[in-house]
Structure formats: C-alpha cells, structure tokens
Design brief:
Blueprint (H helix, E strand, L loop, with lengths): L4 E5 L3 H13 L3 E5 L2 H13 L13 E5 L7 H9 L9 E5 L4 H9 L4 E4 L4 H15 L9 E4 L2 E4 L4 E4 L2 E3 L3 H11 L8 H8 L8 H14 L7 E4 L3 E4 L6
Parallel strand pairs: 1-2, 1-3, 3-4, 4-5
Antiparallel strand pairs: 6-7, 7-8, 8-9, 10-11
Helix pairs in contact: 6-8
C-alpha cells in the first residue's frame, strides 16, 4: 500500500460521516458504503482499477465493518472476503452493538483484527485503526522502537523496561502486554483481545492467566501501577492521565 485507504461500511449515515471526517483529518483516504452489498461493489470497482498498476495491491488498507445491517450482515461479508484470494489479507475491524462474548468470538473466528463495541469513542477507533495498520503494514510505517510515559520507558529493540532510570527484568509476555497498552493509551482491551494479540495461537490461555500477568506487571512498574487500570466488565487499559 502506498497510502492508507479505509473502507467504512455501516448503514448509519451520521456515524459514517463522523468516522470519515476524523479519519481524513488524521490523513487517511476513505470510501463509504452503506451496506455490505454496496461494499462488495466498491471492492470490485477498486480491484478492477489497481493503484499505480500494481495488480497485487490491496484495494484498501483496512475495512471498518458494521455487523448488523439490512441484507447481508457484516459477518457474512467478512466470511466472503476471507474466502476470496484477492481480499483475504485485508484487515477488518468490526464496529458493532453485538458485544456478547459469543459475538466477539464469532468476529475473531472470521479473521477480524479487532472488535469494537458500540457506542464507542472516536478516539478509541482512531487508536485501534492506527494499531492495526501499523501491525499489518510494518514496512510502510516508521519503525517504532521506543515508548515512554514520564519515567516509564520501553525499548522494543533491546526488549528493556526502565522504571525511573532502573532497568526492571520482564518476561516476554509481560513486555508484550505493557508495550500494547502503553502504545494504545486509554484504549480498553478485553481479555480475549489481549490473548489474541499477545499469546501464540497454539497456547491455551484463560482469563485468569491474563489477570495474573497484569498483577505481575503492575508490581514491576512500581508507582506507575495505577496507570494499568481496569474497566469492570470490559477489560484493561493504560490510563494516561493517572499520575499527572
């Protein structure tokens, strides 16, 4: 991809307008479809006219996809795209009011890269869009190797964590958890999302395992422990303004 192009698929016109304005203000190019059927047509049109003559280039960097729409649902569209050789590598973020555990698991089983429940904040969507695009197209984004918050500093190349100028030993899992939370501040991650992003796919992990690792992480970062906050019933997030 030479530019980040996002396809927004939702039958709520006002919501599409809000997302489009914010994404384009952030520098993304957007296309809107108000149904899954319309999205398929736009994908076919874009594929018929590849950018810069590259027939292997994906038509969009990312799809923001509603689940509950008249006609074809978002789940049905995602299943169709993931089974298509032309589109199966395109990342998908579901935007939906269907927020039960069963629905979330269904979304991830269909190959979703993220799952955001409505109602949501635009700030949260923007953070998750950046995270998915950065993770999916690492060669097209400036390499990020450092992250910090006040005296809490992480070096992703050296895999080190400093707490007020003291290097603290971290396990791989603890490091990956803190790196994810620190780089997506104020974004709430469910236990299921943390499992998907941090643990290998062939490892069985329970919610209790997440809690144990989060508790260990809090102890290691000392006075920054309150920054790893819990939103009851939803998950964990890095509370950016906790110590300011």
């Amino acid at each position: 991809m030479t530019e980040s192009r996002i396809l927004i698929v939702d039958d709520e016109e006002d919501l599409c307008n809000i997302l489009q304005v914010n994404l384009e203000t952030a520098g993304y190019t957007t296309v809107v479809a108000y149904s899954a059927e319309d999205a398929l047509k736009k994908l076919q049109v874009e594929s018929a006219s590849p950018l810069e003559g590259d027939t292997e280039q994906l038509p969009f960097s990312l799809i923001l996809l509603d689940v509950m729409m008249p006609g074809m649902s978002g789940f049905q569209l995602a299943k169709q795209l993931k089974s298509n050789q032309r589109f199966h590598k395109m990342p998908i973020i579901f935007l939906t009011a269907k927020d039960s555990l069963e629905d979330t698991l269904t979304g991830f089983s269909l190959g979703a890269d993220d799952y955001i429940s409505k109602p949501f904040s635009v700030k949260e969507v923007m953070a998750r869009v950046r995270a998915v695009i950065s993770r999916t197209y690492p060669d097209e984004n400036e390499a990020v190797s450092l992250a910090s918050y006040l005296g809490l500093k992480m070096d992703n190349d050296k895999k080190t964590v400093e707490v007020d100028e003291t290097v603290i030993p971290f396990t791989r899992t603890e490091f990956e958890l803190l790196w994810l939370l620190l780089n997506n501040r104020n974004v709430v991650f469910s236990r299921q999302e943390l499992i998907k992003r941090v643990w290998p796919k062939d490892v069985i992990v329970t919610g209790r395992t997440i809690d144990v690792n989060i508790n260990r992480l809090r102890k290691k970062i000392g006075r920054y422990a309150p920054c790893i906050a819990t939103r009851q019933g939803f998950g964990y997030f890095f509370q950016e303004d906790e110590l300011k």
